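During the no-cost extension, the postdoctoral fellow (Dr. R.K.) reprocessed legacy sequence entries with the updated structure-token encoder. One reprocessed record is reproduced below for audit purposes.
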Amino acid sequence: MLELFSDRLHMRQLSSTDWALFLQLHTDPKVIEYVCDHPAEHSLREKFACRLPEWTPDSDHWLCLVICERHSGQPVGVTGLKMTRNGADAPGAEVGYLLLSQQHGKGYGVESLNSVIAYADESLRLTALQATVTAGNIASCRVLEKCGFSLESRVPNAVRINDQVFEDLIYTRSIAASVGHS
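Re-encoded structure tokens follow.
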């Protein structure tokens, strides 16, 4: 099972015992404010089930890692990536993260994302990462910028959340995978 570690965090692949965390993350209005409408439970169960199979770099589903505090073992959110395959382009991935609302502002987003970036570079040898953020989600924009992402483009009228239309902000980050690896 894939595991990542940082100073304060331990990240491990999502398992069937993590349903309560997944449900809480996707139904807390503070967490999903800029992510989605309140989802139906059957849709969430399908989304959860899609992330349970063992992940490999050839997988079409998200690598979903549960973020836990190392000292307490308590889960604080999820992070991960999904491989992107754009024909002849170098391999890349989309990254994402959700943190429990009581864990916001503690630096866990930056710390966990930096671990995912290091994994993408060192183990997957990816050359580029992308993240999509709904306009207005200033905290997520800051996390991405602290991790070396830059705003690349805006997609107008991309998502409707609670009857309000938002644009998507597309962030990208190059990583050094193609340099220095043999």
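Strands lie at 3-5, 9-13, 63-69, 75-84, 92-99, 128-134, 150-161, 164-174. The first helix runs from residue 19 to 27. The remaining legacy entries will be reprocessed before the final report is submitted.
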